[in-house]
Amino acid sequence: MAEQILTTLASKRREIEAHIGKLEADLEQARRDLSAVLACTVVFSGDAPLPKSYMNLSRLFPRHELPKLCKEALEAGPRSTREIAAHIILVKALDTKDRHLRKAVAWKVVQVMRRWERQGQARRTGKVHGTVVWGQFDNR
Fold first, then answer.
1. Does 76 reside within a domain?
2. pTM here?
3. How far apart are CA 118 and CA 104, in angstroms?
C-alpha cells in the first residue's frame, strides 16, 4: 500500500515539474514578445531617436591614442588581440559586455598590430583560441 502511494506521488511530482517547465518556457516567450513590442513602439512613436546600428570608433580615439594603448597593453608581455582590446575597453571605461564594441576595437587593434608587424616593431608569437598573440615589442 505504501509503495503504491509513493509511486503515485512520484508520478504526480514529475507531472507537476513538467508543467512548471512548460510554464517557464511560455513566460520566457512572453518576455521576448513584450520586448519586441516595446522596441517597435519606440521605433514607430517618433519620440525617441532611432537606435544606432553601428559605432564610429574614429571619434572614440583621439589621434595616436590607440597605438599608445596597444603599447601599454603589450608592456606586460605577449597578449592576444582580444586581451589587448579588453585592456583598451577597460582603460577607456567603456561597456565590457558589448560584444559589438569588443569586436570593433579588436579590429582596430589588428590594424595597428599589422602595421607594427610590417615595420618590425611587433611580431606574431602564436595563437590562442583563434586570436593572434602579439609580442616582442621594440621600444623605438
1. yes
2. 0.57
3. 22
